């Protein structure tokens, strides 16, 4: 929403265009010009003590207007009034500065001492950086627990002295603040004991057979003995639970005492407390995410897909209710985006997809490629484009996916086909572009998958009997990947070429690489010279030997990540028969 500017003239500006008889009317007009905050607080603060609002900076100097050489008596009178107001404002600023210094709330801004309440007022007036969302004052709006009869003291986790939600209310969970604090201290002690046990196990990890230590045996015996003491559920226990249900209804958690052993009961209480701590942590992250100014960009900062949590690089036009979240969750098979981990977990339990939609056109080992038509699987392709925009700055296509084909690369295991990356291409490209957009997900970068995607795009161009080139502009990482690929292909071609003369056109036809890309790569390698009106390709044997040595020293996993043309089962679009 654009910022609304307020134009408030000073008293001296009005005095230049007024007569002496209109001084009282000017005073009345000035007092009726109220700001939004002063109008809300006019019952407690006098209007004449309001400082005149400034436009851009918070300054404590009086506004100067009019001519310095010519001053009318009316202007002099208005200046005297203005001077008195400035003196009173300075006195007020000093008093507020002393007050904030004593309370530890002084804020220095452009060399002045400003109270936080004044800063809030100036934010509302548009004088300083305006917040993207208003600061929530929990002391006024939600300082009390909504449960009737609760005094907001204590916290279910035992870590804090007060609470304001049912999730962290001890009374709602049929316990007290003292019990929660005692459980927190016991939990902290248990954590320290667990660290000691883990340290002992780490020291004994070199042994072939890890025999339980004495402390572990004592712990196991203690837990077994405690869990064996299960109480009998008598009629008195049932009656007690029934009366609790009738008295409190849904305003309290059902009673769970007397249903299981004390050890299991305390274990459940500990799980509740830990879950409450996690919820508080997520709430704090949300608060920090939304507590930003307009100068800072609102965007998704983290993405969880599969077993990976990824930091995003750029913003993406997800729907507004998702784009303003600090983190979103994606199904790694259908790419549906969700708000919370709970929704994702429920979705994964119901989602039937285990691979991208479309036809599997390539498979070798655990690597597969799926051809997805943007017209047939529109929602999936749109979700794929939104995901790609989180890591590509220049991507502009998100929703108009029908003219494109998407080739999704996956890594397969027992749980399904996990997306590694993809590239898209137009169905009918006028400029013979074989790639419109290409992306390798960050968790799979620097593992050889990027070159596999590029090599597969050129393999499709060879099957189509065309020469291809990626659509420009390329991202920085994309340009580096393509240059590295072109360099490897050309050096490998020159190593196998035994002739004395070579034609760039022939190289382009055999490798499906555009001639302009070949020329730029040879120039970067210093292998293209112009002599006596002809372009000569110089075969530098030292570059070829360096390439072969580097290729031989690659790890086995990296060396095996190559595209095998015999594993491709695909018919080009122009050779497919019309559907019956």
From TrEMBL:
Its main location: nucleus. Residues 240-250 have a biased composition (Basic residues). InterPro entries: Acyl_CoA_acyltransferase (IPR016181), HAT_MYST-type (IPR002717), MYST_HAT (IPR050603), WH-like_DNA-bd_sf (IPR036388), Zf-MYST (IPR040706), Znf_C2H2C (IPR002515), Znf_C2H2C_sf (IPR036060). Residues 38-47 have a biased composition (Polar residues). Residues 11-27, 113-123 have a biased composition (Acidic residues). Residues 128-140, 216-239 have a biased composition (Basic and acidic residues). This is Histone acetyltransferase.
């Amino acid at each position: 929403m654009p910022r609304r500017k307020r134009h408030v003239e000073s008293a001296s500006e009005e005095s230049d265009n007024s007569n002496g008889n209109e001084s009282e009317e000017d005073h009345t007009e000035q007092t009726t010009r109220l700001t939004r905050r002063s109008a809300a607080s006019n019952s407690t603060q006098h209007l004449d003590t309001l400082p005149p609002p400034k436009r851009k900076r918070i300054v404590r100097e009086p506004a100067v207007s009019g001519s310095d050489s010519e001053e009318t008596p009316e202007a002099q009178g208005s200046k005297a009034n203005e001077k008195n107001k400035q003196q009173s404002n300075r006195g007020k600023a000093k008093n507020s500065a002393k007050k904030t210094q004593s309370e530890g709330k002084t804020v220095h801004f452009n060399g002045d001492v400003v109270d936080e309440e004044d800063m809030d007022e100036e934010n509302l007036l548009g004088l300083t950086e305006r917040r993207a969302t208003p600061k929530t004052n929990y002391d006024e709006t939600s300082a009390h627990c909504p449960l009737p009869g609760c005094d907001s003291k204590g916290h279910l986790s035992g870590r804090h002295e007060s609470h304001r939600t049912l999730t962290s209310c001890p009374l709602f969970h049929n316990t007290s603040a003292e019990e929660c604090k005692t459980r927190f201290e016991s939990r902290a002690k248990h954590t320290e004991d667990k660290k000691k046990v883990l340290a002992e196990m780490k020291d004994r990890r070199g042994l072939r057979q890890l025999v339980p230590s004495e402390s572990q045996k004592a712990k196991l015996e203690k837990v077994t003995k405690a869990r064996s003491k299960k109480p009998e559920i008598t009629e008195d226990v049932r009656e007690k639970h029934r009366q609790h249900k009738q008295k409190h209804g849904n305003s309290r958690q059902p009673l769970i005492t007397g249903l299981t052993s004390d050890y299991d009961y305390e274990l459940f209480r500990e799980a509740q407390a830990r879950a409450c701590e996690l919820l508080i942590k997520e709430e704090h992250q949300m608060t920090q995410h939304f507590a930003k100014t307009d100068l800072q960009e609102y965007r998704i900062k983290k993405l969880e897909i599969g077993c990976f949590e990824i930091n995003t690089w750029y913003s993406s036009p997800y729907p507004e209710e998702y784009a303003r979240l600090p983190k979103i969750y994606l199904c790694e098979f259908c790419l549906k985006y969700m708000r919370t981990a709970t929704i994702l977990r429920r979705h994964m339990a119901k989602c039937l997809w285990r691979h991208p939609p479309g036809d599997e056109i390539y498979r070798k080992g655990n690597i597969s490629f799926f051809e997805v038509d943007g017209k047939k699987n529109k929602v999936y392709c749109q979700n794929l484009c939104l995901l790609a925009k989180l890591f590509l700055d220049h991507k502009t296509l998100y929703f108009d996916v029908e003219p494109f084909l998407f080739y999704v690369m996956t890594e397969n295991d027992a749980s399904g086909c996990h997306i590694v990356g993809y590239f898209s291409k137009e169905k009918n490209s006028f400029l013979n572009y074989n790639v419109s957009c290409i992306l390798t997900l960050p968790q799979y970068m620097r593992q050889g998958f990027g070159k596999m995607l590029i090599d597969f795009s050129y393999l499709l161009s060879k099957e189509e009997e065309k020469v291809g080139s990626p659509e420009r502009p390329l991202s920085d990482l994309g340009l580096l990947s393509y240059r590295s690929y072109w360099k490897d292909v050309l050096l490998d071609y020159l190593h196998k070429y035994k002739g004395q003369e070579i034609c760039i056109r022939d190289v382009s036809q055999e490798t499906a690489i555009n001639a302009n890309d070949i020329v730029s790569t040879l120039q970067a390698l210093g292998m293209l010279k112009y002599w006596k009106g002809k372009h000569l390709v110089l075969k530098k044997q030292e570059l070829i030997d360096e390439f072969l040595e580097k290729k031989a020293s690659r790890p086995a996993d990296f060396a095996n990540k190559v595209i095998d043309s015999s594993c491709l089962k695909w018919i080009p679009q122009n050779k497919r028969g019309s559907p019956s």
